[in-house]
Amino acid sequence: QQINYSVELNDGYSFPVKVYKNLLQSISAWEKYNVKILCIDGIVDKVSEIDKSFRKSSESGIPLVIAAQGFGEEVSATIDTNDNQKKFSIMPIILEQELENINVLNDIATCAGGDVVSILKGQMLIYTVYDEIPIVDWCRITDKSLIIQNKSTRNTVSAHANQLLEKREKMCQH
């Protein structure tokens, strides 16, 4: 953040997000290469739901972004403690339940090359296979946005965007 206006050219996909307050205090942005992105439809309330992914992230050294609608105190405290001890690099981002964000989680998953973990599809977070969480080329997170660069999903993202535009066009015709 600065006093003057600036223009930044990004090659990638940008999403409005909210970051857990303690993790960006000393830095203005969290920026990593080869990042796993896990999208969760709901609130991650207990560490036991996601402990397997935490341990695997620590063992592998691969940074992990977890996008969800919220995080319980136990989960936030565990991430904060382990981050302070440099045991892993995990960034929780929150997509607040607003009308504008209704499809953002699915869009992030599409850009990452994965899918949303959702109880509505009969999935449980505890059974998420860490090795199946997609890896993106680059990720940058500020207090207000998530930017993803992932060359391998450009065609998929383009097809997804075209499909959404077609749906909108059909809705407007009726």
List its salient traits.
10 strands, 174 residues, alpha/beta, eight-stranded mixed beta sheet, two-stranded parallel sheet
Summarize the structure.
It is built from four helices and ten strands.
Uncertain stretches of 5 or more adjacent residues = none
| Strand fraction | 25-35%
Which sequence of SSEs, written as H and E, runs from N to C? EEEEHEEHEHEEEH
How far apart the termini lie comes to 44 Å
What is the averaged pLDDT score? 89
**What class would the helix/strand composition place it in?**
alpha/beta
**Radius of gyration in whole Å, from Cα?**
16 Å
> What is the helix tally?
4
**Helix content percent band:** 25-40%
Q: How many strands appear in the DSSP assignment?
A: 10
What coarse outline follows from CA principal-axis ratios?
A: globular
Question: How many strands, which pairing sense, and closed or not: the largest β-sheet?
Answer: 8 strands, mixed
Write the layout of secondary structure elements.
Blueprint: E1 13-16, E2 18-19, E3 30-41, E4 43-44, H1 47-60, E5 64-68, E6 70-71, H2 73-84, E7 90-94, H3 104-112, E8 116-118, E9 135-141, E10 145-149, H4 154-173
Parallel strand pairs: 3-5, 3-8, 4-6, 5-7
Antiparallel strand pairs: 1-10, 2-7, 3-9, 9-10
Protein described:
By secondary structure, this protein is of the alpha/beta class. It is built from 4 helices and 10 strands; from the N terminus they run ββββαββαβαβββα. The strands form 2 sheets. Strands 1, 2, 3, 5, 7, 8, 9 and 10 form an 8-stranded mixed sheet that branches. The chain has a two-stranded parallel sheet with strand order 4-6. The N and C termini lie far apart (44 Å). The mean pLDDT is 89.
